[in-house]
């Protein structure tokens, strides 16, 4: 077994891994990351034990140690991104975030750096869906079209795949999905993907007509262009585009706004929005609000706010904090009005 030094305050395995494709047996977690079957378990407050138990044929050349550190956004010497430093920034003049920092269960919530194709298709599946069904759809894509995982030591680890058979396949490559694109819609509809089947098939078609490394190259573009690129795919709206950009394309400032985050925003940050509906225009304003408030890692702050433990531990913020947050939204509205006026003058 290998050891990765990362304190529990910087990585909460329970909170971070069990919201996606990872599975657990007691305190051990198992997941497939780019064709690698990985095992991780916390040894103590400072260390994580990990091992690569097997891999798909296409992942034969991947260094598991490098991949795991990249996935957790750490290095062998220090954290690429320190949550402790981020919390220091978030808590400046913000009593509400100071209150959240006292909640142990909200520590160690990191954004994982996930594989772009899997992330894109997974979030297309997320439309009007729950985590269990989304996970089931991603697993179905893997079992239908992915490569089998070959265990390094079958006698020692075969019981894991017997207990968790969904971990027996890697997520399919774009080339494999493109080969079956003509039948993909019908097959996925038979697997209860519903209208999402057509979106996935169309997205595969769109990607297959682009350069094969497009999802790697697009990460070098400005965030606004990445958002535009993602929203060009079937079934991708503002929230899905933000999720994919944040979780797989390195855009840490992106803030997905869903109903859960919107309710938190109204309750704890901008109470004047109490009777508002989440329109596209308001969505854009709130994305900018959070980016202005939390900076380059606003998406990491959103992950804390999104966490299901939040409502159990917090109370309404002070009036002073509410006013400060409201002033930020007012500034956004003034900026938007100035842009509209300038546009009208040019016309």
From TrEMBL:
HhH-GPD domain mapped to chain residues: 125-303
UniProt EC number: 4.2.99.18
Cellular component GO terms held in the UniProt record: nucleus
Coiled-coil segments on the chain, per record: none
Reaction(s) catalysed (UniProt annotation): 2'-deoxyribonucleotide-(2'-deoxyribose 5'-phosphate)-2'-deoxyribonucleotide-DNA = a 3'-end 2'-deoxyribonucleotide-(2,3-dehydro-2,3-deoxyribose 5'-phosphate)-DNA + a 5'-end 5'-phospho-2'-deoxyribonucleoside-DNA + H(+)
Gene Ontology annotations of biological process type: base-excision repair, AP site formation; nucleotide-excision repair
Keyword DNA damage attached: yes
Keywords: DNA damage, DNA repair, Glycosidase, Hydrolase, Lyase, Multifunctional enzyme
Keyword Secreted recorded: no
GO MF term set: 8-oxo-7,8-dihydroguanine DNA N-glycosylase activity; class I DNA-(apurinic or apyrimidinic site) endonuclease activity; damaged DNA binding
PANTHER family per record: 8-OXOGUANINE DNA GLYCOSYLASE, N-GLYCOSYLASE_DNA LYASE
Family: Belongs to the type-1 OGG1 family.
Protein name as catalogued: DNA-(apurinic or apyrimidinic site) lyase
Species name: Oesophagostomum dentatum (Nodular worm)
